[in-house]
């Protein structure tokens, strides 16, 4: 046997694959255990299929970044092994996510809870940015929650390195509701500030218990953003009119939209508003946000294990539509990458079983 | 660039080492799993070579029997003297490394990060496999193909294969997996080009820095980095050490003055190691990089390749009896697994339903089908503007469309396009 095959077998033998708990077009998820310790894990088996372009880029990205990143607030990749032509990712077992918490109307969320989730998310994000990685798909259902209440950033299928001067990047990233205006206007040079906008919108959603800016199209997304927060002016966002896809929009006046997050207190409101600055350069960085007074004034953030959690632990629920279509769309004949978005395809047969519990 | 990185280097005695605090590099898989001392590299390769010779010998015998069974004539295996030595393997690998570099630059016009990553993949692959088992003729293009994807410069298969003589897309797809496995699915390579940028910036923080000289040294340093890619430097030293050595080769005065100032300002522990030790490392590295500059003797390489034809593992050469046998066995195994799976699935369905409740079907009541995440159309309403080539840029590519447009890249700063 080849040396590499031997190593692979050694790794594969560490784990026992259990029942299937999630299924999508892009990957199946199984429960698993580590033989020696009995530790519970999730095994994500990436479907390779008959791709003419070989290993799927989304899978490669996910593996590439998770192999390197180790942080309490980032999902842990315990191992990678292959069986036949399938890649198996062994991930730590996480039973719920922030979206489930937001949607579970039986749960009461308090200021200290929001503070705690934000703090953990920002810690993970600061680590990510410090390592030169953009996540580019932050949204509540990519923020998973462990049994002891820790928030973990997951799904690195759209992540990439940043910081190469002159490097052009796609603006078709981040699920629309969490996408900052510079991307909607086609910016090809951007930075960690795009992830910060997402964090800001997620924070509002935690208080409001509904998506802050649920645009129906890319245009509608801009419209909703400006209706809510006012159309940007040259003063607050110099140069935005130079963006590739800039188009003049109706002038909406500034409104005190932040009254909806008033429960966060003055510091909380200030912190979120600074994350949602139109000018990417003026937006708080993850590091600055962590040092914001919001996190040091009372009430103290709730201890992770005391945070509210949906009661039914292993409750299956439908995959978000973009999870169904995580596979790269190749009908253009020249795209090998998954978009952060999905065409409006509803699976029509019962075969596509949705049991999303984690990634 | 803590000194512990270089402690893998066995060539010099180690005084008390000073270790810098953890940096992102110290958490990388490259730091964890891909550092070796020169002697470790040697013994690793010797063991691999020895094992491969055994495998090839055994399989050649098996092939002979298989052929005889089929009623074919079969030549006797070559006598042991003609198997490749470690040096032969290294020479051949070196040849394919320089080929990879040429193809990536001139064939595809891809930037350094792809070149650096692909060449690292190739070198890492042959720390786990011998050229007698997997011929670099196929592994080299596969590494390029894979690296292009992992560094965000994907090339479509139909554009890829035509750049190589007699290369079948299926061969790439078949070996891509073997390569990934040999890389332990660790795809992020920390390449020295980024570190070079860092040095170039830091050099300018020195009071009265000679910005012109810094600029000039970069393009020259990049050619030394190209040479370093043909050596084992990346297994022994850190990316920052390699790039500093390349800079010092480009302009020794510049680097020495900078180090002098830096150590005066920041004391003994600058960069986590003493100046004396750092210079020692640099000198060692510079010598190593110089070896990457020597020309290969084409005739020797050709000769090795000819001999390789006779001592490749028959089980991995298409058309041999063993190859066909192996493929058939694989197909059988896959079919059996599929059958087993279908059975399991049937059994599992009921079992699963009991544990997890009813299967959720995406189309239930109207309220339930309301999409939670936004439904998005592909942004095709406007022409994508990435399809332009900038002769002196970093290489353009429309990431969203996966179009790949070559650019000259960092190495050409200060040069005209014709220089490439």
Automatic annotation (TrEMBL), chain A:
Annotated ATP binding sites: 21-29, 44-45
GO biological process, one term: positive regulation of transcription by RNA polymerase II
Enzyme Commission identifier(s): 2.7.11.23
GO molecular function, one term: cyclin-dependent protein serine/threonine kinase activity
Gene Ontology cellular component terms for the protein in this record: cytoplasm; transcription factor TFIIK complex
Active site: 137
Region (Disordered): 306-359
Keywords: ATP-binding, Kinase, Nucleotide-binding, Phosphoprotein, Serine/threonine-protein kinase, Transferase
Ranges where the Protein kinase domain occurs: 15-295
Family: Belongs to the protein kinase superfamily. CMGC Ser/Thr protein kinase family. CDC2/CDKX subfamily.
Protein name in UniProt: [RNA-polymerase]-subunit kinase
Source organism (scientific name): Kockovaella imperatae
Automatic annotation (TrEMBL), chain B:
Coiled coil: none
Keyword Transferase on entry: yes
Keyword terms: Cyclin, Kinase, Transferase
Annotated InterPro entries: Cyclin-like_dom (IPR013763), Cyclin-like_sf (IPR036915), Cyclin/Ssn8 (IPR043198), Cyclin_C_2 (IPR031658), Cyclin_N (IPR006671)
GO molecular function, one term: cyclin-dependent protein serine/threonine kinase regulator activity
Region (Disordered): 1-32, 365-400
Pfam families associated with the record: Cyclin_C_2, Cyclin_N
CDD domains: CYCLIN_CCNH_rpt1, CYCLIN_CCNH_rpt2
Location of the Cyclin-like domain: 95-181
Keyword check for Transferase: yes
Gene Ontology BP term (one): regulation of transcription by RNA polymerase II
Gene3D superfamilies on file: Cyclin-like (1.10.472.10)
Family per similarity comment: Belongs to the cyclin family.
UniProt xrefs under PANTHER family: CYCLIN
Name of this protein: Putative cyclin-dependent protein kinase regulator
Species the sequence originates in: Kockovaella imperatae
